Amino acid sequence: MPRVFNFSAGPAMLPTEVLEASAKALLDYNGKGFGIAECSHRGKEFDGVADEAIARCKSLLGIGDSHDVLFLQGGATALFTLIPQSLGANGDYLVSGEWSQKAFKAAPKGTAKAVASSEATNFDHCPDEATWQLRPDASYFHVCSNETVHGHRLPVWPKHPNLVVDASSEFLSRPHPVADTALIYGGAQKNLGPAGLVLAIVRKDLYPRIPASIPGIWNFQKLAEAKSMVNTPPTFSIYILLETFRWLERQGGLAAMEKLNAEKAGLIYGAVDGSGGFYKGTVAVPAQRSHMNVTFRLPTAELDDAFVKQAEKLGMVALKGYRTVGGIRASIYNAMPLAGCQALAQFMKDFAAKNG
Ligand SMILES: Cc1ncc(COP(=O)(O)O)c(C=O)c1O
Q1: Total domain count for the chain?
Q2: 192 pocket-lining for ligand 1 (C-beta < 6 Å)
Q3: What is the C-alpha separation between 313 and 4, in angstroms, rounded?
């Protein structure tokens, strides 16, 4: 079966090699006669998977002894709900789009603070650093480094002694400054694997802050000590994550991914900018344009619909924009090949020539 170019924002396409290797391991793991989803998480087979996944994640990101790698559940939503309860009620939040706003709303009212917001302009950019009203005594500073819905990113992660980053929709799409970050988390379903699994990287010096009232199942320190196996972890999801780490290494690591992702995004933004105004990007600050979620509109909603339908016939699916934003969103995570972006850019040119 040929696979289409799937521009879904998440759950999103995964590399075919990752799917093939995972499917094989699901049926039979290393000739054992059972699959990797059919053995105990306390046994040597899965223990080896967990060890290798942690080691490869650390090596890809250059993580030293200061941070732990955790595999969690409940989605990124569970994480941004848990963070204020674990690290302190008075977090500062940069509210730059759908997801950072949701994280802010999950934090305690009255003590958490929005240091800046771009809601007044429908989150068409991330507020300029000069406008952030950071509090020196805030327990942490939360940002979403790539706003999946609104299509912009922080080109460089800000500097803060207790930076917390929701990197869901750009995790491992480029190198990340882990050493300068207190906590990085992301739902796996965009760049890393299947939905439900969360990758979190936690600085160990945060552990003394975690109140005793947090149950062990949600306590970062206890989870780290148990290699994320306080209870039964989503073993097959972690296996797919491991295959993704292996695949990323074969691609040349995160610096190589960053270069390729910039080239891919450049093709589509090039088609937007070269269309004489037929396509309009939705992001007001060009330097903040996301390399993962490319958002733009056509002159009318009817043309948006026709664009989505015609693209689908050509094997390019899931291009419809998020319901609150409309227009088109092309999500081009690590697994989207260059050929997918070339095909979309060519289709954009052809469609504009016919309908412009
Ligand atoms: C940036 C970002 N943060 C958080 C979430 C929420 O993730 P989940 O559905 O895994 O809770 C999403 C989902 O799309 C997202 O894109």
Answers
A1: 2
A2: no
A3: 10
- CB-CB contact of 113 with 140 (8 Å): no
The reply to whether 232 falls in a domain is yes
Please tell me if the CB atom of residue 191 comes closer than 6 angstroms to any atom of ligand 1. no
Global pTM value: 0.98
User: Which secondary-structure segment (H or E) carries 144?
Assistant: strand 141-144
1 inside domain: no
Phi (first) and psi of residue 316, to 5 degrees? -125, 105
65 in active site: no
Cα 155 to ligand 1 centroid, rounded to whole Å: 19
* Cα 356 to ligand 1 centre (Å): 35
Active site residue 113: no
What are the average pLDDT values for consecutive 10-residue runs of the chain, which has 356 residues? 92 98 98 98 97 98 97 98 98 98 97 98 97 98 98 98 98 98 98 97 98 97 98 98 98 98 98 98 98 98 98 98 93 98 98 96
157 has catalytic annotation: no
